[in-house]
Amino acid sequence: MGLENIKHVVLILSGKGGVGKSSVTLQLALSLTQQGQNVGILDIDLTGPSIPRLLNLEDKKVTQAPGGWLPVEVHDAREATDNDTHKRGSLQALSLAFLLPSRSSAVIWRGPKKTAMIRQFVSDVLWPPNTDYLLIDTPPGTSDEHIAIVEELHKLAADVRPVTTSNGNGLALEIDGRPKLSGAVVVTTPQAIATADVRKELNFCVKTQIPVLGVIENMAGYMCPCCGEISNVFSKGGGQIMASEANVPFLGSVPIDTGFGALVEGVNDLPNATNGNPATKGHGPERSAELVERYRRCGLCPIFADFATRIDQRIRNPPAS
Fold first, then answer.
1. What's the pLDDT tens digit per position in 35-63?
2. Contact at 8 Å (CB) between 229 and 276?
3. Using CB atoms within 10 A of its CB, is residue 223 exposed (0-12), middle (13-18) or buried (19+)?
4. Residues in the annotated binding site
5. What are phi and psi of 112, to 5 degrees?
6. What is the DSSP string of 195-254?
7. For residue 148, what are the CA distances in angstroms to 14, 111, 112, 152?
8. pLDDT for the residue numbered 282
9. Is 50 exceeded by the pLDDT of residue 166?
10. For residue range 124-160, what is the model confidence (pLDDT) as tens digits?
11. Cα–Cα distances in Å, from 138 out to 87, 90, 145?
12. Binding site membership for ATP: which residues?
């Protein structure tokens, strides 16, 4: 029950708050679906869930079904057609915010209740069959939520049973098909005050045996909405230096893009990243276009498409230990 339909589980981590873990989670999910992968997002930031807001689905509620909860559908899967050559996978999401009475409801829980909720998220959610990736958006730090989710995922990965080999020469161990924790993407901003905290998250990954798939340096510069030029408003390169010193992969830097902010806020006149001209303002089909389709016009889309490809390749072809 729970994660049987999931092939790969990826944690989005950071030891620092406000570095953009939720926006990174969303953009990786959208990029993976644009590459034909079926994706789920699990938001375990119990006291500050952001995913429903970013998806503009705060009014949605989780449906109770026989055997567990059904996640909220963000968009369905579609095959390429003559009119639309883009094949895409499906996207589902689950967050505690979908279970609360309103967006202003405060969650004031001690550690044991947080742990119990995360265990329920792992065991009682009916993700669709053939879900390729489950991206787990985590709160900052290395506290109850992180320990609970890692323990549950490692427990599933270790759930093996003895079977008789086909040639009758004895017993072998066979994993029961449940997913393993494929690794973590660690998010930081370039400033030293952020990387100092995020280094602790890398240490957490070492101690809990989580492979680091890569470091993303978020908010590294500002992307001009008119010409696309990137200016280094703050420092740059701290994330790359941290990744190099920790001997983990560096995926790349992500600038601040007002177009992405407009996208998640529901503004329809996004700048066109390819030529700097304002795109057609939101009327008719554009106004009702799904988030995954509108994201194709966002200036950050090519950056996260590259991240998604490299993460997928690293999971499917892990480096030799």
1. 999 999 999 999 989 999 999 999 999 99
2. no
3. buried
4. 15-22, 224, 227
5. -60, -35
6. HHHHHHHHHHHHHTT--EEEEEE-S-SEE-TTT--EE-SS--SHHHHHHHHHT--EEEE-
7. 16, 10, 10, 6
8. 40
9. no
10. 999 999 999 999 999 998 889 999 999 999 888 765 4
11. 29, 22, 8
12. 15-22
Residue range 241-254: mean pLDDT, rounded: 96
- The SS3 of residue 144 is helix
The pair of structure tokens assigned to 32 is: 């993976």
Which amino acids are annotated as binding site for [4Fe-4S] cluster, given as ranges? 224, 227
Model pLDDT, residue 158: 66
What whole-number distance in Å separates Cα of residue 151 and Cα of residue 162? 22
Q: For residue 301, what are its two tokens?
A: 């889309």
Strand partners, 9: 134, 181
Q: Identify the helix (H) or strand (E) that includes residue 184.
A: strand 180-188
Return d(Cα 252, Cα 105) in angstroms, integer: 36
Does residue 101 surpass a pLDDT of 90?
no
- Please tell me whether residue 283 adopts helix, strand or coil conformation: coil
Domains and CATH numbers, the chain: 6-160+173-316 (3.40.50.300)
CA torsion 146→126→182→154, rounded to 10°?
Answer: 50
